[in-house]
Amino acid sequence: VLDAPAVLQVRHLSKSFAGLKAVNDISFDLHQGEVISIIGPNGSGKSTAINLISGFLAPDSGLIDIESQSVAGLSVPDIAECGLSRTFQNGRVFAGLTVDENVGLGFHKRLNAQRPFKGLQRYPVIRWLSLLAETALALIPGPKTRAENRDVTERVGREIDRFRERLGSRRNDYAYTLSYANRRRTEIARAHISEPALLLLDEPTAGMNQSETAEVLRQLQHLKAQGHTMLLVEHKIELVTALSDHVIAMDGGRIIAFGEPDEVRHSPQVVEAYLGK
Ligand code: ADP
Ligand code: MG
């Protein structure tokens, strides 16, 4: 994996909030087909790092390259176009759309270069409205889009098939009727369907029970076996160990350890960081 080209390069990345260094000079590479997990106590800067890489926050300093394109400070849609997809710590889906429509949204992200509200994209609400508008436009049947819609429906069907154990029977149900775990499955399917060069997952199994966690682990192992490149924030150490090629441990905004899962989890710095909280 280390011989593969770098999909993500992060150099000296920093972000402060009112003087608090949430992310403090972090650097790492993520190679094609590699899975890296970021661990660390609450408040250590994991979500901030993910938000910087995906464009939800602008860095104070540092470089971020995705497939050799510099993306630091670009907007969320522009970074998405460079091949990044992500999920969120608390599982965001569009409550008023069905499972199919939510997953289809991820596919339209690829199909639709057209971006209404361009220029206003720096406001998060507008970004989401714009995504929603794109979907709405794409879902309106018309002579030009009917064939495309059929393709999308078929592709969405195949995507949801992987989650058939739980999600297959819910395709036409509105997302607000779904269980928490099914919302998170929908979110992972939506992120994956665009075949991103880089998939960021912020605590994909947060709030899930043991069997749900095991099922998501199987899904992610499947994605890894297909060669997907993933950056994961995760607390559950068994999942981290089972899935990751390398682990980054953060504390106080800094990287305090990097290496193979067992090496990192037993390193004195990491043990101390967790005990100290
Ligand atoms: P983690 O995901 O590792 O739990 P975060 O990246 O969410 O940690 O937070 C790192 C630090 O930055 C914390 O001290 C947190 O309170 C602070 N922080 C995060 N986001 C913001 C924000 N938008 N405004 C102010 N402080 C923030
Ligand atoms: Mg977090």
Automatic annotation (TrEMBL):
Q: Which residues form the ABC transporter domain?
A: 8-277
Where would you find the membrane-spanning parts of this chain? none
User: Where does the source fall among the domains of life?
Assistant: Bacteria
Give the similarity note. Belongs to the ABC transporter superfamily.
Protein name (database record): Putative ABC transporter putative membrane protein
- Originating species: Bifidobacterium mongoliense DSM 21395
Which stretch of the full-length chain is present here?
A: 49 to 325 of 636
